[in-house]
Protein backbone atom coordinates (compact mmCIF):
# COMPACT_ATOMS: atom_id res chain seq x y z
CA UNK A 1 0.00 0.00 0.00
CA UNK A 2 2.77 2.44 0.89
CA UNK A 3 4.64 1.75 -2.34
CA UNK A 4 1.43 2.35 -4.31
CA UNK A 5 0.90 5.58 -2.34
CA UNK A 6 4.39 6.71 -3.35
CA UNK A 7 3.67 6.03 -7.03
CA UNK A 8 0.30 7.83 -6.85
CA UNK A 9 1.96 10.83 -5.19
CA UNK A 10 4.68 10.90 -7.86
CA UNK A 11 2.06 10.87 -10.63
CA UNK A 12 0.09 13.58 -8.84
CA UNK A 13 3.15 15.82 -8.70
CA UNK A 14 3.68 15.36 -12.44
CA UNK A 15 0.09 16.42 -13.15
CA UNK A 16 0.46 19.33 -10.72
CA UNK A 17 3.57 20.55 -12.55
CA UNK A 18 1.60 20.38 -15.80
CA UNK A 19 -1.16 22.43 -14.11
CA UNK A 20 -3.61 19.55 -14.61
CA UNK A 21 -5.05 20.07 -11.15
CA UNK A 22 -8.09 17.77 -11.49
CA UNK A 23 -5.86 14.79 -12.31
CA UNK A 24 -3.39 15.78 -9.59
CA UNK A 25 -6.23 15.89 -7.04
CA UNK A 26 -7.43 12.41 -8.04
CA UNK A 27 -3.99 10.86 -7.59
CA UNK A 28 -3.38 12.63 -4.27
CA UNK A 29 -6.73 11.25 -3.08
CA UNK A 30 -5.70 7.76 -4.24
CA UNK A 31 -2.41 8.15 -2.35
CA UNK A 32 -4.42 9.09 0.75
CA UNK A 33 -6.43 5.87 0.48
CA UNK A 34 -3.22 3.82 0.12
CA UNK A 35 -1.60 5.50 3.13
CA UNK A 36 -4.72 4.90 5.21
CA UNK A 37 -4.58 1.22 4.23
CA UNK A 38 -0.88 1.13 5.06
CA UNK A 39 -1.36 2.92 8.37
CA UNK A 40 1.22 5.67 7.76
CA UNK A 41 0.30 8.70 9.88
CA UNK A 42 2.98 10.87 8.31
CA UNK A 43 1.91 9.74 4.84
CA UNK A 44 -1.72 10.57 5.63
CA UNK A 45 -0.74 14.02 6.93
CA UNK A 46 1.28 14.76 3.79
CA UNK A 47 -1.58 13.57 1.55
CA UNK A 48 -4.07 15.86 3.32
CA UNK A 49 -1.56 18.70 2.93
CA UNK A 50 -1.13 18.01 -0.80
CA UNK A 51 -4.88 17.82 -1.32
CA UNK A 52 -5.31 21.09 0.58
CA UNK A 53 -2.68 22.78 -1.57
CA UNK A 54 -4.40 21.65 -4.80
CA UNK A 55 -7.81 22.79 -3.55
CA UNK A 56 -6.32 26.17 -2.67
CA UNK A 57 -4.94 26.49 -6.21
CA UNK A 58 -8.42 25.61 -7.50
CA UNK A 59 -9.91 28.40 -5.39
CA UNK A 60 -11.81 26.14 -2.97
CA UNK A 61 -10.39 27.76 0.18
CA UNK A 62 -12.92 26.24 2.59
CA UNK A 63 -12.15 22.66 1.52
CA UNK A 64 -8.45 23.51 1.41
CA UNK A 65 -8.56 24.75 5.01
CA UNK A 66 -10.43 21.61 6.10
CA UNK A 67 -7.83 19.28 4.55
CA UNK A 68 -4.89 21.33 5.81
CA UNK A 69 -6.36 21.29 9.34
CA UNK A 70 -6.64 17.48 9.13
CA UNK A 71 -3.01 17.35 7.98
CA UNK A 72 -1.89 19.67 10.78
CA UNK A 73 -3.60 17.59 13.47
CA UNK A 74 -2.35 14.31 11.98
CA UNK A 75 1.25 15.59 11.77
CA UNK A 76 1.40 16.14 15.55
CA UNK A 77 3.24 19.48 15.19
CA UNK A 78 4.57 19.35 18.74
CA UNK A 79 6.54 16.22 17.85
CA UNK A 80 7.45 16.90 14.21
CA UNK A 81 8.13 20.64 14.27
CA UNK A 82 9.36 20.96 10.68
CA UNK A 83 6.37 19.12 9.20
CA UNK A 84 4.02 21.09 11.45
CA UNK A 85 5.50 24.32 10.11
CA UNK A 86 5.30 23.21 6.48
CA UNK A 87 1.58 22.54 6.97
CA UNK A 88 0.84 25.33 9.45
CA UNK A 89 2.00 28.17 7.18
CA UNK A 90 -0.24 27.18 4.21
CA UNK A 91 -3.06 26.74 6.73
CA UNK A 92 -2.50 30.29 7.99
CA UNK A 93 -2.48 31.58 4.40
CA UNK A 94 -5.77 29.84 3.56
CA UNK A 95 -7.38 31.30 6.69
CA UNK A 96 -6.17 34.75 5.61
CA UNK A 97 -7.87 34.25 2.23
CA UNK A 98 -11.03 33.14 4.05
CA UNK A 99 -10.87 36.27 6.21
CA UNK A 100 -10.37 34.24 9.41
CA UNK A 101 -7.69 36.56 10.70
CA UNK A 102 -7.71 35.43 14.34
CA UNK A 103 -7.11 31.79 13.38
CA UNK A 104 -4.43 32.85 10.90
CA UNK A 105 -2.67 34.92 13.58
CA UNK A 106 -2.62 31.92 15.96
CA UNK A 107 -0.98 29.72 13.35
CA UNK A 108 1.51 32.45 12.46
CA UNK A 109 2.47 33.09 16.07
CA UNK A 110 2.99 29.37 16.71
CA UNK A 111 4.93 28.97 13.47
CA UNK A 112 7.24 31.89 14.25
CA UNK A 113 8.20 30.51 17.65
CA UNK A 114 8.95 27.08 16.19
CA UNK A 115 10.81 28.40 13.14
CA UNK A 116 13.08 30.46 15.39
CA UNK A 117 13.58 27.44 17.64
CA UNK A 118 14.90 25.24 14.83
CA UNK A 119 16.64 28.24 13.16
CA UNK A 120 15.24 27.49 9.71
CA UNK A 121 15.89 30.41 7.32
CA UNK A 122 13.74 28.68 4.70
CA UNK A 123 10.70 28.47 6.98
CA UNK A 124 11.27 31.96 8.40
CA UNK A 125 11.28 33.30 4.84
CA UNK A 126 7.91 31.65 4.18
CA UNK A 127 6.65 32.81 7.55
CA UNK A 128 7.31 36.51 6.90
CA UNK A 129 5.93 36.27 3.38
CA UNK A 130 2.71 34.87 4.86
CA UNK A 131 2.73 37.50 7.61
CA UNK A 132 3.13 40.17 4.92
CA UNK A 133 -0.02 38.82 3.26
CA UNK A 134 -1.74 38.93 6.66
CA UNK A 135 -0.80 42.58 7.23
CA UNK A 136 -1.81 43.52 3.69
CA UNK A 137 -5.19 41.86 4.17
CA UNK A 138 -5.54 43.74 7.46
CA UNK A 139 -4.83 47.05 5.70
CA UNK A 140 -1.39 47.58 7.28
CA UNK A 141 0.56 48.37 4.11
CA UNK A 142 3.71 49.60 5.87
CA UNK A 143 3.86 46.53 8.13
CA UNK A 144 3.30 44.31 5.09
CA UNK A 145 6.31 45.93 3.41
CA UNK A 146 8.47 45.52 6.52
CA UNK A 147 7.57 41.83 6.66
CA UNK A 148 8.50 41.44 3.01
CA UNK A 149 11.87 43.04 3.76
CA UNK A 150 12.32 40.66 6.69
CA UNK A 151 11.47 37.72 4.42
CA UNK A 152 14.08 38.93 1.92
CA UNK A 153 16.64 39.24 4.71
CA UNK A 154 16.08 35.62 5.76
CA UNK A 155 16.18 34.54 2.11
CA UNK A 156 19.56 36.27 1.73
CA UNK A 157 20.80 34.58 4.91
CA UNK A 158 19.59 31.24 3.58
CA UNK A 159 21.44 31.74 0.29
CA UNK A 160 24.54 32.87 2.17
CA UNK A 161 24.40 29.73 4.29
CA UNK A 162 23.95 27.60 1.17
CA UNK A 163 26.98 29.30 -0.42
CA UNK A 164 29.00 28.79 2.77
CA UNK A 165 28.02 25.12 2.97
CA UNK A 166 28.80 24.65 -0.72
CA UNK A 167 32.23 26.29 -0.32
CA UNK A 168 32.89 24.15 2.74
CA UNK A 169 31.86 21.06 0.79
CA UNK A 170 34.13 22.05 -2.11
CA UNK A 171 37.02 22.61 0.31
CA UNK A 172 36.46 19.21 1.94
CA UNK A 173 36.15 17.59 -1.48
CA UNK A 174 39.39 19.27 -2.64
CA UNK A 175 41.25 18.14 0.49
CA UNK A 176 39.97 14.59 0.02
CA UNK A 177 41.12 14.61 -3.60
CA UNK A 178 44.56 15.88 -2.55
CA UNK A 179 44.77 13.18 0.12
CA UNK A 180 43.70 10.50 -2.36
CA UNK A 181 46.23 11.72 -4.92
CA UNK A 182 48.95 11.72 -2.26
CA UNK A 183 47.97 8.22 -1.17
CA UNK A 184 47.90 7.10 -4.81
CA UNK A 185 51.34 8.62 -5.37
CA UNK A 186 52.69 6.90 -2.26
CA UNK A 187 51.15 3.64 -3.41
CA UNK A 188 52.73 4.03 -6.85
CA UNK A 189 56.08 4.78 -5.25
CA UNK A 190 55.73 1.73 -3.02
CA UNK A 191 54.85 -0.42 -6.05
CA UNK A 192 57.83 0.97 -7.97
CA UNK A 193 60.11 0.26 -5.00
CA UNK A 194 58.70 -3.27 -4.69
CA UNK A 195 59.24 -3.91 -8.40
CA UNK A 196 62.80 -2.54 -8.16
CA UNK A 197 63.53 -4.73 -5.12
CA UNK A 198 62.03 -7.70 -6.92
CA UNK A 199 64.24 -7.07 -9.95
CA UNK A 200 67.28 -6.84 -7.67
CA UNK A 201 66.27 -10.03 -5.90
CA UNK A 202 65.77 -11.85 -9.22
CA UNK A 203 69.12 -10.52 -10.48
CA UNK A 204 70.93 -11.66 -7.35
CA UNK A 205 69.21 -15.05 -7.49
CA UNK A 206 70.13 -15.52 -11.16
CA UNK A 207 73.75 -14.49 -10.38
CA UNK A 208 73.91 -16.91 -7.48
CA UNK A 209 72.48 -19.69 -9.65
CA UNK A 210 74.97 -18.94 -12.43
CA UNK A 211 77.87 -18.88 -9.98
CA UNK A 212 76.63 -22.08 -8.39
CA UNK A 213 76.28 -23.72 -11.80
CA UNK A 214 79.80 -22.54 -12.72
CA UNK A 215 81.22 -23.84 -9.45
CA UNK A 216 79.50 -27.19 -9.96
CA UNK A 217 80.83 -27.38 -13.55
CA UNK A 218 84.39 -26.64 -12.36
CA UNK A 219 84.06 -29.22 -9.56
CA UNK A 220 82.84 -31.84 -12.02
CA UNK A 221 85.73 -30.96 -14.35
CA UNK A 222 88.33 -31.40 -11.58
CA UNK A 223 86.68 -34.63 -10.47
CA UNK A 224 86.95 -35.95 -14.01
CA UNK A 225 90.62 -34.90 -14.20
CA UNK A 226 91.32 -36.57 -10.86
CA UNK A 227 89.55 -39.73 -11.92
CA UNK A 228 91.45 -39.75 -15.22
CA UNK A 229 94.80 -39.21 -13.40
CA UNK A 230 94.05 -41.98 -10.94
CA UNK A 231 93.18 -44.34 -13.78
CA UNK A 232 96.41 -43.55 -15.63
CA UNK A 233 98.49 -44.07 -12.45
CA UNK A 234 96.78 -47.44 -11.86
CA UNK A 235 97.49 -48.47 -15.43
CA UNK A 236 101.18 -47.58 -15.06
CA UNK A 237 101.51 -49.51 -11.81
CA UNK A 238 99.91 -52.56 -13.41
CA UNK A 239 102.35 -52.46 -16.37
Report what the structure shows.
This protein has helices at residues 2-17, 21-38, 41-57, 61-74, 81-98, 101-118, 121-137, 141-238. The mean pLDDT is 80. The radius of gyration is 41 Å and the shape is elongated. α2 (21-38) runs antiparallel to α3 and α7 (121-137) packs antiparallel against α8. The protein has 239 residues and is mainly alpha-helical.
Question: Can you give me a brief rundown of this structure?
Answer:
The protein has 239 residues and is mainly α.
Q: Oligomeric state of the chains? A: single chain
Count of alpha/pi helices? 8
What string, H for helix and E for strand, traces the elements in order? HHHHHHHH
Strand content: under 5%
DSSP helix fraction:
over 70%
Number of strands: 0
Residue ranges: pLDDT <50 for 5 or more in a row?
A: none
N-to-C span: 116 Å
Describe the biggest sheet? none
What is the arithmetic mean of pLDDT?
A: 80
Mass-distribution shape: elongated
Structural class: mainly alpha
Based on CA atoms alone, the radius of gyration comes out at 41 Å
Key features?
single chain; mainly alpha; 239 residues; 8 helices
Summarize the helices and strands and which ones pair or pack:
Blueprint: H1 2-17, H2 21-38, H3 41-57, H4 61-74, H5 81-98, H6 101-118, H7 121-137, H8 141-238
Helix pairs in contact: 1-2, 2-3, 3-4, 4-5, 5-6, 5-7, 6-7, 7-8
Amino acid sequence: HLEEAYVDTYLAKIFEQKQQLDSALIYYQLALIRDCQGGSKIGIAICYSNIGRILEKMGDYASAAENLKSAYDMAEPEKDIALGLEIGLPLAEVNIKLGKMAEAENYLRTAEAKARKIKSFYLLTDLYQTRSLYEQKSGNTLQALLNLQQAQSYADSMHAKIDKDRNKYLEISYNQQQTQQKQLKNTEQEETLKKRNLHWAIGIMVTVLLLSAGAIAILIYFLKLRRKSAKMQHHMETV
